[in-house]
Amino acid sequence: MKLEGLRVLDLSLFLPGPLMTQFMADHGAEVIKVESLHEGEPNRHIGAKRDGVSVYFANTHRGKKSLALNLKNPQGVEILMRLAEKSDVLVEAFRPGVVDRLGIGYQQVAARAPRIVYASIAAFGQSGPYRDMAAHDLATEAMTGVLSLNRGSDGKPAIPAIASADMLASMMTLSGVLMALYRRKETGRGDYLDMAMADSLLACLPNNMGVAMTERRQPVLKEERALGGNALYNIYETKDGDFIVLAGQELKFAKNLLEPLGRPDLVKLCELPPGAGQDPVRDFLISIFRKKTKKEWIEWFQGRDVAFAPLKTLPEVLEDPHFKARGMVTKDARGWDHLGAPIKFSDEPARPNFQAPAHGQHTREILSGLGYGETDVEKLVSEEIVKGP
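RESULT FIELD:
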C-alpha cells in the first residue's frame, strides 16, 4: 500500500486529525493514537454505540494502535520523544502553546527527530489575533463568513450538517503532510505545518467571494448562482412533503426539463443572471413539483439528461447500491456499517482494518518496541505514566 512503512503519531482529538490519520492507516501507515491516561479520545464517548464502541470512534480510529500516555510527566514525554525518533509524522490539535508547555513542541521534537513532519491543527492557527480564541467548527464557520451564507428558509443562519472546517482542515493537513514527506526525500529534513481550520474554510470560498471582493458587500443569496438565485440550482418540495434537487444551470438542462413540462417559453429566462429575472421559472417549478410525490418525480426523471437528485436520508444512503458498489458504505464481519476509503487507487488500493483499538490496548507492545522491559512497564503503569491492559 502507498503509505506502508510510515509511522504516524496522532495526538489530535475529535474529527480533523483523527480522520486524516485514519485515511493514512487505510493506506498502510502504522498510526499510533496517543491518548490521555483516563478519558482518552473524546469521541469514544460521543453518540450511538455498538458493543460499547461509538460509531464516531469506529469511523475515525479504525486500524490504529492506542497508547495511553501521561504527557504531564517527564517520563511520559521521554516515551513520546523516543517514539518520535522512530516515526515520520506527528499530528497534534491542542490549543496553541500547549505542546510547547508540555515539552513536545516542534522545536523540541525536531531536535531529537529532525526528519519528523509535524502538523499542528488549530481553529485559527498558531499566529494572529484569534490564535487563543476557544473554538470548534461552528465558531470558525461564523468567523470566516461561511455561516452567513448558510441560511434556512426563514432567512436565519442554520447549523450546517457537515463540520466543514474540521473536514477541510483534515484534507488540507493530509495534503500538506504528503507534500512534506515528498520533499523530505530530497532534503532529508522534516518540516512544520501550521494548519488552521479557518484558513481551510476561506481557501474554499472562491466561487462565493465575487461581490464581497469587488464591492465590499455581503452577497444577497437569492442573487447568487450557487446560493439560491438560479432556478435550476435549488431545492423543491414535492406533493408528499419530501424534496428533490435541481443542480445544473447549463441551458441544455433547462431545455431538457422545461420543454417536456410544457413551458419552453421559460428557457430564455434561464439565460438571465441569478435573481429576480428567474422568478417566473422558480415559481413554475415550485408549483409543478408539488403535483407529484418524490417517488413519481424520480420515475419521471429517469432517462432525462437533467441534473436532478432526490433528497436522501442517511439510512437510505447506507442502502444505496451506488455507494455500496464504490465501497463507501460497507460492513465488517460483525455486520457493523462503516464509511469506506474515499481515496481509490487502481494499484495498491486502501485496505481498511475495521477494528478500532481499546483505550491503551497497544501500550505494552509499543513500549516493548522502544526497549522497555516488563519490569519497566509495570513500574510505568503503577506510577500512572502509562495505561494498558
